[in-house]
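Incident log, entry 3
Record: Trigger factor (436 residues)
Problem: checksum mismatch between cached and fresh output.
Input:
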Amino acid sequence: MAVNVETLDKLERKITLEVPLEAIHKEVDARLRRLQRQVKMDGFRPGKVPLSVVAQRYGASVQYEVVNDQVGAAFGRAVTEAQLRVAGQPRITEKDSAPEGMMAFEAVFEVFPEVKLADLSALELEKLDAQVDEAAIERTLEILRKQRRTFGPRAEGEPAQDGDRVTIDFEGKIDGEPFQGGQATDFTFVIGEGQMLKEFEGAVRGMKVGESKTCPLAFPQDYHGKEVAGKTADFLVTLKKIEQQHLPEVDEAFIKSLGVEAGTLEALREDIRRNLEREVKFRLQARNKSAALEALAAASELDLPKAAVQAEIDRLVEGARNDLKQRGVPNADQAPIPRELFQQQAERRVRLGLVVAELIKANDLRATAEQVDAHLRELASSYEYPDAVVNWYKSNPDRLSEIEAIVLENNVADYIFARARVTPKTIGFAELMGQG
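Fresh output:
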C-alpha cells in the first residue's frame, strides 16, 4: 500500500502507521510463553509458573515492548517504501481513532535535505605553504636542551633574571581586601617562560633573595579567574630562593639520549628536520583542508535538519561535561551547561558534514587502502616502535576508521583545490606552529 507522506515544513514530514491488533496479540502471547519458561516465582518450580500469572505480572510491559517494536518496524517499512532519508528520531503518538482491528499512530520526523553544492570553479582559496628553516631547528634544539636542564643556586647577591627558577611568597589584595587564589607560599616558577602574567614576572625580575616589594597587577578582561578579571590587585612579593638554569652540552651523550644513535650534531639536526617537516606537513594539510571544506560549506545551499543539530549539541554538551570531569570539577554531571552556547558550532558541523557527504557521494570519492596505509605509516614514524603503532590502529576497526576518515577528508580537500581558484601563500614556520 502506498505511503501517504504529508509535508509539514521544509524538512518535516508526517505519516500515519497502522498495526494489526492480531499481530500484536500474537507476538505478546509468544513472548509471554517464552518468558514462562524462564521466570522464577515463589511457590512455583522454575518453568512451571502458570501463563495467567506470568501475564498478570509481565503482560503490560511485554505489550508495551511489542507495540514499540511493531510500530518501529512499520515506520521502517514506510520510509523505505517512500524512499525517505530520515534525520534523527521520529516523534510517534497514538491516534484516538483507528480502523477496526488496528492501532494507528502518527509519526512526525525530519528528512535529510537536498544539498545544492557550490560551483567549485567559483571558489577562491588561499593554499598555505611553509618551510622548516634553520631558525626552527635551532629553536627545537634549545627546547630539547631545556627539557633536560637542571637548576643550581645562583651566586649570593645576584638578582633574578630570565631563565632563573625562583621561589616566592605572595599576597594579593584588591581595594585592600585579600581575594581567593591571591596568596601562596613557596610558589615556584621560571622567569620569562610565560607561566605568570607579564607584569608579575617583570616585578620579580631583578629582585634579590630576601627582598620584598609591592607591585600593582592589572588582570586582563578575559582572565580565566572571572572574580578578578579586569581588576587591579596589589601584590606583596617576597623572594626566597633563586636557582640558575644549567643547559646540557650538545655532546655525544646528550644526542644519544635523544635516540640518535650516530651521536653527531649533524645527525641530530637531520632528525629534528625530519620530525619538523612531518609536523609541518600535517599542520598545513589540516589548515588547508579546513579552509577548503569551510569555503565549500559556506557557498553551498541546504536546509539544516533541526534534529541533527540538536543531536550535535547533545554531543558537544557531553564533551564539555567530560572535559569538566577530567579537570576534576566537582559535580560535573550536574553542572549547568547552556545548550545555546553550542548552537552555532553545531549548525556549522552539521552543515559541513552534509555538504562533504554530498560531494563524496556525487563524485565517488574514496580513501584507498594504499593511502590509508601510507598515512598510518607516516603518522607512526615519529614513534620509537612504528610497527607497533601501525598494528595498534589496524587491530581495532574504530581506530582504523578514524584514519580512513582523515584520508578521505584529505582527498576531498585535494579535489576542491584542484578545481577552485587557488592563490598560493607562504607563511613562516613560527606562524604555522602558533609560536610567538
